[in-house]
Specification:
InterPro entries: Dictyostelium_Tiger (IPR052014), EGF (IPR000742), EGF_Tenascin (IPR041161), Ig-like_fold (IPR013783), Ig_E-set (IPR014756), IPT_dom (IPR002909), LE_dom (IPR002049). The chain is mainly beta. It is built from three helices and 91 strands.
Amino acid sequence: MKFYVFLLFVVIFVVIGKSEGFQFGNITSRPLQSGLNSIGNILRSDASQDYQSYLDSTNQFNILVQTQTNVYSIVLASVVGGTDGTPISLTGTLFAGIPDLTNYNILSVSCGYRAQTNIFMTESEFALVQDIGLSSQVRLYEFYSSPGNHVKWVTNPNRLIVLTKQSAISEVEIYTLASSAPNTGFTVSNNPTKTLSLNELDSVVNFMYYDGASFIYAFKDSIFYQYNVGPSATNGFELSGSSSAIVGGSTLSRGAAVATASLLYVCSQVSGMVNIEQFDPNTLSAAQMDPISGGLYTISSCLSAQYDQFKGIVFFLIQATDGTLGFISFPTSTTTFSGLTVNWIPLLNAPMSANKQSYSLGLLNPDPSIQARLSIVLPNATLIHFPYTSYCPNDCSGHGICFETTCTCDADYVLDDCSILEPTITGITRVSYSSPSNVTILGTGFINATTIEISISGIVECTNAVYISSTEIHCTTNDFTDSSLSPFQNQTLTLKLDSYESDPVDIGLIFTSPKVTSIDQNEGIVTVRGSDFYTLTFMEIKLGSQSWENIHTLSDGSGYACVLPNNADKQNLTVLAVGQPQIDPYYNQDFIPEPYLTSLSQNVIPTASTVITINGKFFNVYTGEQWYVVQGNIKTLVTPIATNTTALIYTTVNGLIPNTHISVTLKPSGMTSNLLSFTYESATVTSISQMSPETNLINIRGTNLGNSDFSVNVKDPKGSELKLIEVSNTQIDCELKNDTIKGTFTIDVIGSDTIEIPLNLKPNIDSISYPSIHGGSNITIQGEFLWNTTVAMNTGSFDDYITCNSEGLTNYPVSTLICPNIVSGTGTINYRVVSQLSGQMNLESSYDTTYHPPILSSINPTSYRQGQTVKFTITGSEFNDAVNSVSINNEDCEIIHNIEGEVICTLVPVTDPSTVTNPVSVSLDLSGVKGYNNNTLIYQKSCPDQCSNKGTCDNITGKCTCMAEYTGDNCSQLKQDSSEDEISYSTLTTVNFTLVILILIVILLCQP
């Protein structure tokens, strides 16, 4: 049953014993026995402090336990490796040399500070027992004064300090331990007694602790005392300070303490919670005092403490009110304790009445090379122990030493948890010297770091690094052109991953060999282009056997520009590495200079043909070839000057060519020179005029106008491009657009500035509508180029300028003006259209017309006869009482009444009607303007013989319409009777039919 309960305890403990970066391992529990028998309940126990290992390498970590009858020393190294549940056999009584041990009232036991030294104390004496080999040496010493029940004592390296209580005063007895070699025993001398100045031992001392350096701390009656036992202490002991244990009105119960090199940690209980106090020995002030709740458990007391100096971990063993035990642990780097929790161990409890001294925490070899274990002695004579990790990540992965929360990694290991080997570079893939390269860094121990820095000889950086694996990192090198690093020597590579830096390594970088992709000549410059070129410090270019001296690197780094010497000829061109004869040339081929044109005898030429000289270099290379000068796109064969290998005589092409370049090409080699630019003499315009009779054509005269339409552009004032009809060096003919207006025309000739010249367009009137005699009407003027002109109207002796508006979409061939609100009047009108343009002569067109002629709407009567007096009433519009005369069939009709829109006149016609064609003409004359009606009035005509009374007379035509039986001009002839003819025909038809019938009858009768 006990076994299963223990298993449950182990499982629960492992689960709750984990903390971030820190965890407990499986618990091993072993009973303590003497032979086959239990040693009985443990009254007191004490574990050695880990700082002993600093002073004595032979020290073994042990726990001293006292039972009712014996005192035992348990060497932890000999028991912690046993199997869970198996007893630990303690061979006899440790203090066998002391007779009648049961007669002693032991007040305290302690693992002595010095090696293998164990101590216990009674009311009258103390015993020092040192293990030497397999035996023990025992020394008994009488106290100079009886300590009573309040004794507490502790050792430092050379002194045994005992606080005693005699009657009404407290004393301290100091015993000096003589130095001795290991395993040879010890002696005690000097035993001065110092009376304490304060009555400090009126009650039981809760704990007494030595910090391993200068101070002893004791706690009683809520007061915390500090005693100086260091070199500066008077007589080796003096009270140096005290501190109250009253916090927030509550009294702390300080129950355990442990010291580091600089701080003292005290575990106190108050109000069912735990306070961890962090004391500064210099001020005795608590830097931290944070309450820690026990959760489901109410904390009763702090039992014991231990400090792992190698890992920087503090342990406190605490007990709940129900006896349950638990742990509080933290690294000494902790600055606040409010976040700590208690790791309770269910099923691991002890009676609350047990002496606190029966619990002790022991450490087994807290050496970084050995797994640390924590041991606990329980009152029921059981020793439990379990391994624990550090607060460092992954417990430093087995490759480092943890202190507090930080790993100090072993050599060649890195990262916070020492989990990988230190990064080491073993190589780098091929690199370009002149441009950024995507490369792979090869090595070991690479990690996916936040920051990756790679440097080549501390000059060139490899940026944009990306972790691929523990053996590969991809990055991009900068170019080396600004670095002065030699591509032929080893370079030093360093790698930094976050804060971990590799050792520098010298590696011969494999640079991509320079590659020449093109050799081009531009004028007198030869450009060597390619990739992966080194700087000129490490590259050499030769023409023939001579190094090219006048050379510089292209701005884009893609190659070099070399100035050709004037005497250059066909030679071998090589590109090679400086001082590296073992490396084959990167380029080695023949080079033939192209003909290079340097200048023209004149750079400005007329558009008409002219003779110029073309100067250049390297003409001598092409002796015997045909030379062609290319001007624009026109190729002309020329002959070089025999005595001059640097000049050509050339006659330019007549006209203007858009491509204003001259070059030379040769046959049969096909070599072509560079281009030389020239410009044409600026075009000039001397005149612009409108042609006649084609008024929509204009003529422009000047110089250097070119001879083709692609060299010239003419635009009208509206910016519309005009159609070119003819172009020559001296004149341009072009056609105006239908909507062209007068104004400034622009002429653009290739190579010349834009020329602006004004042109006034001559207007021409083709027609004008009549204005009403009453005024207020509109007139329409149509013709050519009438837009934006001024119109003058003259009805007498002076001009009256009228307002007119352009209308329509064209200004040629039909241009329209609408002139509103013409003044009233009669008679004739003269119109003048005037075109004005600043700085130009006025141009005009004149047109004569009249006011609207009279309109004769009706004439009554509508007919009349010769010789009869007739009164005519004529009505209509566009005439008034100023009608001058009325004419009817060219006979004057006397006006007897004349008002607006109506005229009455009388007429006795005498004209022979037979000479008249009806209807006759009627006209009104108003101020010399006549209006006609030729469709209404009939001049009656007589028929011959009044149609002999056998017909009707048509007075319009003078012809008869005869009755049915009469005919002739005068209807006097009787028509022939048509009915007789009709009877004869009928009779004949009847007879013929009768004969046919008779013949048919005869034929039928004759049939047999």
